[in-house]
Amino acid sequence: MEKKNLILDLGGVILDINYQLTIDAFKSIGIPHAEKLYSQQSQIPLFDLLEKGLITEEEFFNDIRAMSDSEHDDEDLRKCWNAILIGLPEENVKTLYDLKKKYRLFLLSNTNSIHEAAYRKMIIDQYRLFIFDDIFEKMYLSHIIHLRKPNAEIFQYVIGNSSLNKSETFFIDDSIQHVEAARKVGIESILMPKGKLLKEVI
To answer: What are the residue boundaries of the structural domains of the chain, listed by start?
Structure first.
């Protein structure tokens, strides 16, 4: 069936990110084996709680501080956590506006209030406005809806909340566990290859 709706992940699909930068930053403040705590494939419950909006930024920073071998203020920890965020390629912005002419566009992201504030500022600084408000019909952010991928409930929520037909909907994500979860609930999905631009996958 012809696709009418596109659901897109944010980091690794639209926004350039690098998990290793945050892992290295955590190690630099005295958190050994940071890669075992936080990665694209898995993470400890603390990060899940933050991404589901179930703990405050203060609670998150306090727990991160407790893992470190020395005291760091919130701004130091914020810089480490936001190191993952690189930028929004202009080519992806052009592709999104082209796609908007043909499809209903939706954003579905595992994110958190700290990262959201950072990438909003990054995008506004670069484009003078938060262009996602103009591009996407609706943005589903995990810390706001209190659900996160790869749980099936988040996909069902998006489908129901925006009255989408699964057979007319396509999903793109850069994490295989999210792609497989979407497929299990009946949404055709593909994995975004590393190093590719959105236009190359579309």
So the answer is: 5-16+88-201, 19-82
Mean pLDDT in residue range 134-150: 97
Q: What's the CATH fold of domain 5-16+88-201?
A: Rossmann fold (3.40.50)
Per-residue pLDDT at 41: 61
pTM over 0.90: yes
- Report d(CA 28, CA 145) in Å as an integer: 33
pLDDT at 39: 57
pLDDT confidence of residue 66: 85
Burial letters for 43-65: b for 16+ Cβ neighbours within 10 Å, e otherwise? beebbebbbbbebebeebbeebb
- Outline where DSSP puts E strands in 133-195: 138-141, 169-173, 188-191
Query: What is d(CA 121, CA 116) in angstroms, rounded to the nearest whole number?
Result: 9
Higher pLDDT, 71 or 83: 83
The span from the first CA to the last CA of the chain, in angstroms, equals 17
The token duo for 150 is 């790869």
HSE-CB at 66 with a 13 A cutoff on CA atoms is 7
Residue 120 has pLDDT above 70, yes or no: yes
Cβ atoms of 12 and 175 within 8 Å: the answer is yes
Provide the angle, in degrees to the nearest 10, between the axes of the packed helices 113-127 and 57-67.
110
**Phi, psi at 131, each rounded to 5°:** -65, -20
